[in-house]
Model the fold of this input.
Amino acid sequence: MGTSIHIYSDLDEYLKRNKDVVDEKREINPASLKCLDMIVKPDDKIMVVIDCEKFFDRPDVSRSIAMYQANNIKKYLSGEERLVEYDDVEFDPKDDKITFFPKWLGKSGQFFKAGRFWGERPKKKTKIDWTHKFYNVGMNKIDLILKTD
Done:
């Protein structure tokens, strides 16, 4: 089964849904490994860089969402990829799409469908809070949290 992306309305909703597995005292926290970076390839694949050294030594590069260690990502870069930065991601609640590099006019940027939304759904497109992005090893999902004012 592939990696899915779950969106949470705010940090409280994330903690409420994951309270039994989120623990800051563990060496490896299977519910909240920090995602350091996301890189989008030209063929609409996402490379997610995880802050760990015990998993993903040999990532499955055939998947549309693949996980990489921070210390070996450079082996897999070709130079055509685009690093996703702070304001380059937004969530569209109408069709549950996560858009990378949104554009104002014309065709929108690259997008992926969110697997699940938790919490109160916003009325319009909302930016993703880039300071809180996690990968859950046990459930094989990426958790993203919406930006709140």
In short: The longest strand covers residues 126-136. The chain has one domain: 4-146. Helices lie at 11-18.
